[in-house]
Amino acid sequence: MPTQPEQVLEDNLVAQLVNLGYGKVTIKDEKDLLVNLKSQLEKHNNITLSETEFAKVLNHLNKGNVFDRAHILRDKMQYTKDSGQSGYLEFIDVENWCQNQFQVTQQVTMEGKYKNRYDVTILIRTCATNTKKW
Q1: CA 108 to CA 105: how far, in whole Å?
Q2: Do the beta carbons of residue 101 and residue 20 sit within 8 Å?
């Protein structure tokens, strides 16, 4: 049985996902990943987050184990804006799940206790045409 180089396999998978409507994005590291997250949250919630407000979002997301975090993503987040007003964020549209948008990227490098490189990563963002007001 012939074998296929790993890069060809990755490229073919990404091409198939793009043909299914996934947006292809270039994300090389954690910094790029966070920039993309902030951008997608702003589009979905029709807001602009300051760096301080986005830091609150990251703090909210970085709590608990993987199961806790999955639950957090399904809920809305209440936060205090820089102006002192209360704001709400939605991470994933669980009611209209089929309207969530998908992105794909490859070769993302993350550094923590160890340096890891992920071959293909699928990102989910909610529909940018969402006009809900909280």
Answers
A1: 7
A2: no
Classify 29 as helix, strand or coil: strand
Residue at token pair 């987040």 = 77
Output the six-digit token pair for 25.
């994005």
Residue that the structure tokens 């997250």 belong to = 37
Range from 34-48, 55-69, 118-132 carrying the lowest mean pLDDT: 118-132
Cα separation, 63 vs 85, whole angstroms: 24
Angstrom CA distances, 26 to 9, 32, 108, 123, stand at 18, 8, 9, 12
Separation between Cα atoms, residue 93 and residue 68, nearest integer Å: 18
pTM reported for the whole predicted model: 0.80
The answer to whether the CB of 102 falls within 8 A of the CB of 123 is: yes
What is residue 126's predicted lDDT score, i.e. its pLDDT?
55
Query: Distance between CA 124 and CA 129 in Å, rounded?
Result: 15
What confidence tens digit (pLDDT) does each residue in 33-61 have? 999 999 999 998 999 999 999 999 999 99
